[in-house]
Amino acid sequence: MNAPPTPTPAAGPALDSVNRKYAGPVDTGLGPFVNAAVVALSDTTDLPYVTMALWVGTGGDVAVIFSGAPSGITIHAVPSGTLLPIRVSRVAATGTSASNIIALW
Fold it and tell me: Quick one: DSSP state of residue 29?
């Protein structure tokens, strides 16, 4: 008697290292998040990864540079406890009054 074939487990979604997002049918643009880091505000240094979202712990203005964009924008009056579903490469010190910001990717 031949043994039945062993089923191959379905592969999980592949992480696209360029866009820092999951490729495939599970990509909702909002996760799943697999990493998080406290944001170090900087006017000159990019974050180590492009974010999928930012968590703003303490509200205020958030000055960001979107992934691939040459210049930034300030998002004004972000309330405390807000999840911003934005892909940014930098959170600027100048223009950011919010604090306790977490990068999610």
Answer: S
Contacts 24+ apart (CB under 8 A), 40-43: 41/91, 41/92, 41/93, 41/96, 41/101, 42/90, 42/91, 42/92, 42/93, 43/92, 43/93, 43/94
Tally of CA atoms within 13 A in the half-sphere of 95 that contains its CB: 14
Task: Tell me the mean pLDDT per 10 residues along the chain, length 105.
Answer: 49 47 50 90 94 97 93 96 96 98 96
Between CA 103 and CA 105 the distance in angstroms is: 7
DSSP summary character for residue 72: -
Pair type for strands 53-58 and 82-84 = antiparallel
Burial class of residue 28 in the structure, from the number of CB atoms within 10 Å of its CB (0-12 exposed, 13-18 middle, 19+ buried): exposed
* 3-class DSSP assignment, residue 77: strand
